[in-house]
C-alpha cells in the first residue's frame, strides 16, 4: 500500500505533461487535420528556455519562467503555422506530415546549436522538493503540484471549449468542417489560434518536466511519441479522451515501473497496439466513415 | 453452359435510416445481358455496388457462381471473375494508357502462383497491346491518361474491364458523358465483344434507353429500392409504370 | 525519347537490368580514380545511403507508404550483424547481411500487417512508435550495450577476406549494392512492381481490379525493410561499430530527404538524392557537427518548393520558363500559369 499511492500519484503526474502536449496536438488535428510533429520540438524548446531563464529556485521565479517558456513557444508555433503549415494544407496529407517532421528536425537540431549537447538540469522550486505524508505513504510534493497544475489546465481547457464562443467554434470545426465553414467559421483564423494555444501548452509542459529529468535532445521524442499514443488512444480530436488516456497510461506506466520495471516505458506502445486492434477510433473518437479497402 | 451466375436473396441496404434497397430478389443467368434502370435515388447504384462488393448489404445474401460472396470485398470478387467500371471513369492518372491496361490484365490470372509476382508481366503486356488496338487507343498508348478526352477515358476503362477476362462485367453508366458518336462506337464494340464471348454476363446501369435497347436483352426497373418491372427492353420501355416514373411526377423516393 | 533508347540492344539491356549493373561497375571503377583517401570513405557512405534510400523508396515512391520509422530497420540490420558476430564470431559478412535482411523482412511484414489496419495519421504515428521502441530497446537491453553500442565489427570477413582498406571496402560495397539494385530493378519491372504503383495511385481502383492491396503493401514493407537492413549492416561493417545513434529520427528524415531530392518516381532517383546528400554533408561538415538541423531545413525547403524532387526540376523549369521570360519582357494580356506541383504525387511515371 505504501508504494501504491505514491506510484499512482506519480503516474498521474507523469501523465500531466503528456496530456498537456496531447491536448494541443489533438486540438490542432481536430481543426486542421495536421499531425503536428513539431510539437515535440516546441516542448523541448520550452524546457530549454526554463533552464536558461531560471536563476535560483524560487517558486515565483519558476512560475514566471514557465510562463515565459509558454509565450516564447507560442510565438514560435504561430510563426510555424503562418510560414509553413498554411502553405501545405492544400497539398495532401503526405506533404503536411513531411513538413511537420521537417520542422521537428530543424527545431530540435537548432536547440543543439543554441544550447549545446550537454544535458541541463534545473532544481526543484523551493518548497516543492521532498515529499508529503498522506496518512502513511509518502508522496512526492512536486508530483502533487504537477497534478494540481494538470487539473487546473484541464478545467481551463474545458471552460474554454465548452463555454466560450471561440471554444464552440473550435469544436464545430472539429466535428464537421464543411458545416462549420458554411456557417461562416473561418477555419484559417481558428487554426492559427489553436496552434498558438497548443504551442503555449507544449511550452508549459516542457517547463513542468524540467525539475524531474535532465534536458537533452532525446526528450523531444521521448515525450512526443507517448503524446501521440495518448492522442490515438483517446481518440483523434478529443480533449477529454486525451485527458483520460494520459492519466490512465501514466498510471499504468508508473505501476509497471514500481512492480515490473523492465516493462516500463513500453507500456504506451503495447497499449496503442491493443487499442488499435479492438477499438481503432480510440476511446472517445468517432468511427471513421472511410471504408477500409485492404483487408 | 447456362445456369445462374448471380443470385441476390432478399438484399437490403439501409443508410442512416434511408432504405436504399429493400428486400430485392434477383437472378442473373450466365450469358445474360441485364440492364438496371430507374430514376435517381431508386437504389440501382446501391444494388450495383452490392454486386460489385463496394457496399455490404444490411440484410440478405449475394451469391456468385453458387458461392456466397456477401462478405467478400471488391478485390476478392475481382479475383473470382467480377470486373466493373465506374460511372466517372477511374484511371491511374499518374501512369500511361498502356500501363493502365497492363495492370488490369494482370488480374486475368486468378490465383497467380506466388513467384509470378516477381517476374515480368509479359502475357499481360500482350493482352494490353491487343486491347489497345481493338479499342483504337494504340496511338496514345504512351500518353498519360490525364490528356485523354472523356470518351477515350471511358473506352480505356472498358478495355481495362475486358482485360480482366471476367465472367461478369458490371458497367456503371457506360456511355454517360459520351458524345453521340463515342456512345455508338462503345455500344458497337460491346456488342462485338458479347458476340465473341457468349458466356460473358453483363449487368449495366444506364439512363439512355437507346443504349439499353441495343445492348440489353432484359431490363429491370427499380423504384424506391424495389424491383418494379422485369422484362424485355420493349416490354419495360413501353410500360405505363416506366413512363410514369421517368416522365410523370418526377424523381423522388 | 532519344533515339538511342530505341535500339534493340539497349531495350534488351534495360529489360535484363544489365544497365544497372553496368552503371554500378562504371561507378566502381571511376570513383577511386578521382577520389582519394577519406573521399573514398565518403563515397562508400554514399553507396550505403543510396541502397537505404532505394529501399525506402520501395515503400514511399513505389507504393505510396510514408513511413517515419525506416531508421528502425536500418538499425535492426546493423544490430543483427553485430549481435551475431559478437556471439558466434567467424560468420561471413555476406551471410550476416543476408540474415539481417531476412530478420528485417519478417519484422517489417509483421509490423505492417498490424500498422496497415490504420490509415493516415495513425499509421504515421505507428511508424514513429516503431522507431522509438527500437531506440528504447537499444538503450535499455543490457545485451545491446546501451549507448556504447556493439563494436569489433572490423574483424568481419567477406568471402574470407577482411576489409583492410578503404578501396577494398569500396569495391565490395559497390558490388553488394549493385546486386541489390539489380534485384530492385527486376522488382520494378515485375508484376508486383506494377501492382505497387497501382495501389499507390488509387488503392480502391486497384482493389476493384483484383489486386490484393494489403498483400502488396505488406510485401513492399518487407522488401523495403530487408534492403534497409542490408544497408544498416553495411554501415556497421564500415564504421566497425553499431550504436543507438543508428536509430535516431534524424536518420529517418535523412533517408526521406534523399528520396525526395532525387525524385520519387524515377527508378534511380534515390541514388542521386543520397549521393547529393552525403557529399553535401561532407562539404558542410566543417560548419555543422550535428546534421539534424541541416536535414530538417533541407526537408522543409523541399516540401515547400519542390516536392517532386530534383529530377523534376527540368520539367518545372520548362513549365515556368515561358512565364518568367514573358514577365521579363513586360506585362502582357496572356499570362501562362502552369499548375504548380503541390504534392509529391504530381508527375507521370517515367519508366515502366
Give a short overview.
The complex is a heterotrimer of chains A (295), B (253) and C (352). Chain A is mainly α and 295 residues long. In chain A, 72% of the residues lie in helices and 2% in strands.
Architecture overview:
The complex is a heterotrimer of chains A (295), B (253) and C (352). Chain A is mainly alpha-helical. Chain A has helices at residues 4-32, 38-53, 59-88, 93-115, 141-163, 165-175, 177-182, 187-209, 218-234, 239-259, 267-278; strands at 131-133, 138-140. Chain A has a single domain (4-294), classed as Orthogonal Bundle (ABC transporter involved in vitamin B12 uptake, BtuC), CATH 1.10.3470. In chain A, a hairpin with a 4-residue loop joins β1 and β2 (138-140). Mean pLDDT of chain A is 85; it is low at 289-295. Chain B is α/β, with parallel strands linked by helices. Helix content of chain B is 36%, strand content 25%. Chain B has nine helices and ten strands. In chain B, the strands form two sheets. A six-stranded mixed sheet of chain B has the order 6-7-8-3-9-10, with helices on both faces. The model of chain B is unreliable at 249-253 (pLDDT under 50). With 352 residues, chain C is mainly α. Chains in contact: A-B, A-C, B-C. Chains A and C meet through α3, α4, α9 and α11 of A and α6, α9, α10, α11 and α13 of C.
Count of DSSP-assigned helices of chain C = 14
Which class of chain A in CATH terms?
Mainly Alpha
Helix content of chain C: 55-70%
The number of helices of chain A is: 11
Strand content of chain C: under 5%
β-strand number of chain C: 2
| Overall geometry of chain C | globular
Termini separation of chain C comes to: 14 Å
Give the domain tally of chain A: 1
The CATH topology of chain C comes to ABC transporter involved in vitamin B12 uptake, BtuC
